């Protein structure tokens, strides 16, 4: 994607940045030709490598980090809790009974059991099933499964009133599978722990703070936003690279088939402007021999027609030696589409 800028002989402009950060300098003191001092960077050595670096840091990096953090994990979280009846809310003579048992206060909480890892949890891998133990200061009144996601998740809840806890068993829990439990208990705050032994699972994560689950969701949202932004950037850069690859193929095919026609160009600088604009998919280094060749001829009227054969031979040699953009383009587009896929997976 190196682009030359039009430079009249005899002028001394400063270094001029091109579309990818290469520079072209027109030196003073030449008598019959312009001399160019290109940077030692190829068109895609800078833009391509820079784009890949941005893609790796902005798309691959966050996804890999998120993947590393989300190892085999079973999470039990308290997502909400509210007090229905508190001790101070009772009136004289008012009795509250639940299934024939008098209770002094009543609270309701919702627990979420989730496979937040990246591998399925299978029944044959369970050595000791998941057991949720509620604290002595949070005596359970009742516990039941209120919801599962997806709807075909099978779960068995074995509520042990004497243990103030429950066993939760499942034949299969895929990544992202969720089970919601509704708990009624006699306390203002719900305290619990979780235990179990499952092959490949180092620990069961317990989260008793509903706010932390929102923070976790916000963190994932931020990751998706970052990945989405850089994925879009990669697709834009990849589209530019695809256009250049198409132009490269089109011109190479024309030259190879002998169908390339040099338009009528009056002056030497017109020829320079033409080749540097039409063949901007080449590198500065690749372009320099052709520009030097053009400047080796005196500037005469109808320059293009006078030196048509020499210019066309120089163009053919340029295209023969020009490196292709297709590999960087494909890599950048793959990173872009991967980022878009990741964002869509998050939104599902």
Description of the structure:
The structure is a single chain. The protein is α+β, with helices and mostly antiparallel strands. Helices cover 39% and strands 24% of the residues. The protein has seven helices and 15 strands. The chain has helices at 43-69, 210-256, 268-278, 284-295, 303-306, 308-321, 326-347; strands at 16-17, 23-24, 74-85, 97-98, 101-102, 106-115, 121-122, 126-134, 140-149, 156-160, 165-169, 172-173, 178-185, 192-198, 204-207. It has a five-stranded mixed beta sheet. A four-stranded antiparallel beta sheet has the order 10-11-8-14, with no helix packed on it. A two-stranded antiparallel sheet has the order 1-2. A hairpin with a 2-residue loop joins strand 4 (97-98) and strand 5 (101-102). The longest helix has 47 residues, at 210-256. The protein is rod-shaped. The model is unreliable at 1-42 (pLDDT under 50).
> Sheet bearing the most strands, described?
5 strands, mixed
Helix content: 25-40%
pLDDT averaged residue by residue: 77
Order of helices and strands: EEHEEEEEEEEEEEEEHHHHHH
Assign an overall shape.
rod-shaped
Distance between the termini: 37 Å
**Count of helix runs:** 7
